[in-house]
Design a protein that fits this description.
The structure is a single chain. The chain is α/β, with parallel strands linked by helices. The chain has a single domain, classed as Peptidyl-tRNA hydrolase (Rossmann fold, 3-Layer(aba) Sandwich), CATH 3.40.50.1470. It has five helices and seven strands. Helix 1 packs across helix 5 and helix 2 packs parallel to helix 3. The longest helix is centred in the last third of the chain and has 21 residues.
């Protein structure tokens, strides 16, 4: 069984922001693997979709906590379904990587990402897999917290679909 988490913030205000890239990717992933039966699971404070892909049980989740408290939702889901941390994949934006660069990594620190830090704190371990998707600005003249909460620019929007598609394909390759 795999638990795949897309990180983001709930609410229309945050829908197309850089910090919600994890949600955008997991929505694309859900379509690609045919697991699109999203349900609001209050006990996990998350939207969940479940099904099978490549003879493997898959749970997709979008925590509806705010980013900085994502760990509480991830911990609740992992504990309930008894999913070991090595079977968890976290998809998230990464300010340290150039826009569109994607890295798959395991057992890393949070590198300043508060949502990932929350997951590490709640699970008590960092040996889960991460799909890190770059959003680094060309010019670094804006505060990080403000930058990640902004919507993508028109130029970024032009390449965003391709980035989301590649990230979904890379996630599938890790299953």
């Amino acid at each position: 069984m795999k638990l795949i988490i897309g990180l983001g913030n709930p609410g229309i205000k945050y829908e197309k922001t850089r910090h919600n890239l994890g949600w955008l990717v997991i929505d694309q992933l859900a379509q690609k693997i045919g697991i699109n039966n999203w349900k609001n699971e209050v006990k996990f404070n998350s939207l969940l979709a479940q099904g099978n892909f490549n003879d493997q049980k898959i749970i997709l989740a979008k925590p509806e906590t705010f980013m900085n408290d994502s760990g509480s939702a991830v911990q609740a889901i992992a504990n309930y379904y008894k999913i070991p941390s090595k079977e968890i994949i976290i998809i998230h934006d990464e300010i340290d990587l150039p826009l569109g660069e994607i890295k798959v990594q395991e057992s890393r620190g949070a590198a300043g990402h508060k949502g990932v830090q929350s997951i590490i704190n709640h699970l008590g371990i960092n040996d889960f897999n991460r799909i890190r998707i770059g959003i680094k600005p060309e010019k670094n003249n804006i505060e990080t917290e403000k930058f990640v909460m902004q919507k993508f620019t028109n130029d970024e929007e032009e390449v965003l679909k391709e980035i989301i598609e590649r990230a979904a394909q890379i996630t599938i390759a890790t299953l």
